[in-house]
Specification:
OB fold (Dihydrolipoamide Acetyltransferase, E2P), about 230 residues, hydrolase activity, ATP-binding, Helicase, Ruva Protein, domain 3, alpha+beta
Amino acid sequence: MIGRIAGRLDWKGIDSVLIDCRGVGYIVHVSDRTLAGLPPAGEAVALYTDLLVREDLLQLFGFPSMLEREWHKLLMTVQGVGAKASMAILGALGAEGVARAITLGDARAVQAAPGVGPKLAQRVILELKSKAPSLMAMGGGLARNDAADFEDTVIEEAKPAPAPRKPAKPSEGAKRAASAADALSALANLGYGAGDAAEAVAVASGENPDADTAALIRLALKRLAPR
């Protein structure tokens, strides 16, 4: 599996680019949004990739972050959503927009992607509603793009791992605090301000003390949604 390509951007097409990686050129298919964010030809670039394998075809799809790559893979689990439709949805909404649309049940936003009809958009909402929050909670560590660092990558010598300790069982208060922190991180990744997000999560947590991270995200987003 090819998970990331870094090199020189040699060519930009309509929906794909050619990246030269030490003399080997890779054709990588990208969304309109990703293409618009790439530097001019001749400059350094790095993309996280997903390899589509068929009997008569190998295609690489590129993404500016691991978060968007994971959304691509999740979207393709929906019946009727192939690589082309997934890239169209991400191109129209971006990773944050897809997360917001699914959580709020906004099928119209998904339908704004070229080639995505109302039935398919509704299916995306229904099939991913329960799966989206867990990916949103992981968003902070997946959202960065290390394109500028690929020439300076250093592999350090591994050090012996310390003997594992038996973890203490977390208290209910610690669990609630961790869920709230994860929910705040997910909302920050979606672009909400720290104050608004903190207030929404605090209210949601207070009204639903047993809510896990996924539930807190959904409840907080409902409070933050424009009325």
